[in-house]
Design a protein that fits this description.
By secondary structure, the chain is an alpha+beta fold. The protein has a single domain, classed as Roll (Nuclear Transport Factor 2, Chain: A). It contains four helices and five strands, in the order ααααβββββ. Strands 1, 2, 3, 4 and 5 form a five-stranded antiparallel sheet that branches. The longest helix has 19 residues. It starts with a helix and ends with a strand.
Amino acid sequence: MKRTTLILLSAFCLLISACGTSSAAGPEKAVEAYLTALNAKDATRLSTLSCADWEATALMELDSFQAVSTTLEGLTCAQTGTDGANALVTCQGKIVASYNGELQEFDLSARTYIAENSTGEWLVCGVQ
């Protein structure tokens, strides 16, 4: 009986410690989620992934994709540096927009995203 209780208690502690040590998603995951929301034309999600000062720009960028069909291809992002407390994130891949059968590609590597973690979660706060 004591052995079973000890095993169950150990398993419970292991489970709790695994949950407690999981870290929040990094800045690269926030940028990937931001670009996924942009591609999905999800204004609510895009807003929640943006800093207050960047939100209007993010929604304006979203508006530019509203009349076209988009696909997100080959998205991978990585933190490439810092700027003070902010993380700098670059991505590979592209957004392909289709309008009346014409395709236009937007190379994601052309921008460096600025991410900030002032609220406990990484948010996209601009581009360089």
